[in-house]
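Here is the promised in-class demo. Please do not try to memorize the tokens; focus on the logic of going from shape to residues.
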């Protein structure tokens, strides 16, 4: 049974943060990643040590290889490469001090009691930050919140 505050929180979140859904992910053996796909990730981030992979299949059948690893400084990284070899994006673990103040202020304004536990920055293939993903809790609920690089757009992701 939902409490009144829980219903209010849910209504608030969905009114300010439309829900986005990702495709289905399947973990694959790292040696099953096609060499040309792995080479794209290595060329983009030559300092990364890649260790694991999975395939995300969208509703339209499009497949993306998600190749995970770590950077020399210990931060997690993931490179998403479409099956045709095009880099979709890459994500790097961030600390709060690396996130622009405008992004943090926008998040604080929309979700003032949100407690951040993990941050990553999503980059385009040209290495430009396109959004920040914040994982954390709000009123005891786990949330995954995406904020645009300029802090103007905030939405819930992959619930």
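The designed amino acids, position by position:
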């Amino acid at each position: 049974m939902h409490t009144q505050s829980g219903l209010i929180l849910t209504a608030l979140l969905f009114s300010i943060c439309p829900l986005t859904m990702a495709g289905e992910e399947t973990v694959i053996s790292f040696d099953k990643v096609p060499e040309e796909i792995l080479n794209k990730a290595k060329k983009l981030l030559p300092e990364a040590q890649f260790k694991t992979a999975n395939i995300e299949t969208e509703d339209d059948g499009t497949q993306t290889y998600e190749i995970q690893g770590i950077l020399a400084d210990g931060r997690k990284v993931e490179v998403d490469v479409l099956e045709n070899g095009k880099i979709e994006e890459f994500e790097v673990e961030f600390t709060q001090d690396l996130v622009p103040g405008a992004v943090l202020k926008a998040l604080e304004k929309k979700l003032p009691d949100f407690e951040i536990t993990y941050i990553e920055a999503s980059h385009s293939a040209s290495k430009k930050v396109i959004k920040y993903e914040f994982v954390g809790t709000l009123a005891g609920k786990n949330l995954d919140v995406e904020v645009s690089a300029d802090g103007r757009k905030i939405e819930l992701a992959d619930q």
